[in-house]
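Why should sequence recovery work at all? Because a backbone constrains its sequence more than one might expect. Tight turns favour small or flexible residues, buried strands favour hydrophobic ones, and helices have their own preferences. The token representation captures these environments compactly. In the example below, the structure is given first.
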């Protein structure tokens, strides 16, 4: 089976996993002037936030029911065994996920059992902690029958914990992965201002792009539960976590995050009529995948020398195939923070949740009718990525299969594709779009250009650029697009304290072939 065929085939990862991860993407200006990418404008997604309490159908598949299923979707409840000390304004909700009636599809508004222990203490300005996914600063609370609808703003770890130590060394079994959709995830999609294509640009955040039409297709039945109630994926609320993987759609784009033994990856497809056809397959190839974390909080302050590393990522590969029937008229640009998280149930006594999320940016610069560009490469990675004793660590990287040597296609003019992909691994808590806690991210910016066929009698020019980066930290790290979207969802005056972030580049290479003046732009 080819990688292109793999996207169309069901990919099932049964069971559970042990780590919550979250990703971030950066735009790459690659493959020469033809692929200059523009800063992307923020486009918010929104939900009505009602968190309607719906009666779901009977449970299906082998997912657990009741409170066990609620924990898979909402995360574990607060730890109250004395191993952590909370800040004085934190309101703990007894029953944890079992007290959650429903959640809005954006993960910002949560409906809590009004009779649950601690519910009476919920008020604006305090921090509600019902579960690792339902934790945040209360910015609005209103009655919902006998229950309470609570709107939450992001919080940092030190706003929740006064004293704590988060220490783990765990092997990640990818067969245990669960998929968690957040259908109206804030800031999921943005496009360049002035760009063309199926997703129209917008400078007005109140335009139709503020509510993109997200859809998803699954490889099996939706698992729903009895009590607590969790809305189905077709309802207005947050869908239940599921074992079957999800293909997420936005307009003419289809995206599929994948977790299978030995691989974590992202498959991106744009295929509509006789216009643009694009396929990108990015994969992290893993062996003994592990996460190590050691983060301390004392008297409300993060300790120095925090550690959070991902080990066992042995290689990554990137395959690109693009074609345009009408040349430049079919070009597209888009930036997406995938509203599907790969999650793992936490172990008893763990207050934080693990996740893996993805982001990507794609821009095509195809010229001439019936243009095609294909390329693929693979690179070996040796060593952990993340932060150790407060310092960023990066793996060494060597080329196993050169993307430069694989560039091919047919074009009457120079054509290319630029793509940036980010995988973010995190141990944290908060609301789905804004988790706080230690994280590590792996970012690849790549671009390829295939020269004009008209130059072939003299030289067929090809060029490729690739840069790999690692980012890491302990705080609340979210993109500017998500921040803009959250500020439009939250009441005026709600504060969001984010961590300034830097990425460490550890591999950067560009090449042009053949080495002749026509291709090098000299002589």
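From this structural description, the recovered sequence reads:
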């Amino acid at each position: 089976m080819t990688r292109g065929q793999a996207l169309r085939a069901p990919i099932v990862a049964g069971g559970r996993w042990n780590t919550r991860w979250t990703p971030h993407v950066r735009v790459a200006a690659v493959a020469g002037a033809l692929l200059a990418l523009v800063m992307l404008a923020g486009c918010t997604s929104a939900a009505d936030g009602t968190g309607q309490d719906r009666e779901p159908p009977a449970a299906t598949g082998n997912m657990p029911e009741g409170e066990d299923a609620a924990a898979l979707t909402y995360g574990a409840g607060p730890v109250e065994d004395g191993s952590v000390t909370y800040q004085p304004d934190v309101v703990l909700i007894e029953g944890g996920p079992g007290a959650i009636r429903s959640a809005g599809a954006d993960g910002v508004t949560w409906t809590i059992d009004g009779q649950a222990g601690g519910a009476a203490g919920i008020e604006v300005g305090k921090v509600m902690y019902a579960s690792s996914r339902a934790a945040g600063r209360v910015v609005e609370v209103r009655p919902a029958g006998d229950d309470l609808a609570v709107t939450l703003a992001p919080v940092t770890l030190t706003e929740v914990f006064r004293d704590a130590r988060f220490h783990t060394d765990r092997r990640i079994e990818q067969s245990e992965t669960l998929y968690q959709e957040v259908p109206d995830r804030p800031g999921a999609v943005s496009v360049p201002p002035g760009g063309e294509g199926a997703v129209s640009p917008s400078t007005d955040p109140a335009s139709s792009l503020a509510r993109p039409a997200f859809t998803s297709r699954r490889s099996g039945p939706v698992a729903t539960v009895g009590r607590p109630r969790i809305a189905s994926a077709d309802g207005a609320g947050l869908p239940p976590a599921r074992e079957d993987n999800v293909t997420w759609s936005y307009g003419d784009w289809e995206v599929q995050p994948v977790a299978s033994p030995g691989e974590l990856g992202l498959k991106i497809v744009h295929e509509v009529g006789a216009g643009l056809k694009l396929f990108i397959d990015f994969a992290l190839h893993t062996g003994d995948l592990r996460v190590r974390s050691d983060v301390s909080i004392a008297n409300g302050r993060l300790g120095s020398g925090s550690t959070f590393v991902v080990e066992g990522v042995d290689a990554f590969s990137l395959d690109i195939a693009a074609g345009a029937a009408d040349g430049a008229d079919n070009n597209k640009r888009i930036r997406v923070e995938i509203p599907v998280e790969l999650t793992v149930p936490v172990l008893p006594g763990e207050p934080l949740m693990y996740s893996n999320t993805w982001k990507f940016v794609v821009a095509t610069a195809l010229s001439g009718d019936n243009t095609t560009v294909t390329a693929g490469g693979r690179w070996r990675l040796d060593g952990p990525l993340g932060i150790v004793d407060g310092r960023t660590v990066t793996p060494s990287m060597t080329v196993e299969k050169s993307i430069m040597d694989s560039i091919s296609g047919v074009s009457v003019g120079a054509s290319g594709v630029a793509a940036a992909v980010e995988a973010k691994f995190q141990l944290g808590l908060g609301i789905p779009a804004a988790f706080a806690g230690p994280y590590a991210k792996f970012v690849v910016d790549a671009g390829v250009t295939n020269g004009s066929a008209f130059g072939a009698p003299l030289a067929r020019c090809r060029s490729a650029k690739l840069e790999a980066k690692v980012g890491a930290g302990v705080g609340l790290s979210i993109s500017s697009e998500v921040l803009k979207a959250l500020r439009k969802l939250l009441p005026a005056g709600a504060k969001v304290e984010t961590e300034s972030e830097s990425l460490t580049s550890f591999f950067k290479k560009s090449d042009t072939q053949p080495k002749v003046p026509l291709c090098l732009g000299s002589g």
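A few observations help interpret the result. The longest helix spans residues 480-489.
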